[in-house]
Design brief:
Blueprint lengths: L1 H11 L7 E6 L3 E7 L5 H5 L4 H13 L6 E6 L1
Parallel strand pairs: 2-3
Antiparallel strand pairs: 1-2
Amino acid sequence: MKALVETIAKALVDHPDEVRVNAVENERTLVFELSVHPNDMGKIIGKQGRIAKALRTVVTAASGQTDKRVSVEIV
């Protein structure tokens, strides 16, 4: 799933070499921390957060079989 987040993010930004995804796993949650170049922050978030929401929806749908709650944070 980490590769899914990274692939989608790299397709959206101007500086794909600076996309970093860090997975933080707890007992019940799995959080993907996405960091990008400062100039690309607006492209990842989108107008009124639409791109970020769509990214979170895709990751949540892809994690359907896991028992953990999965989320994406943009740092």
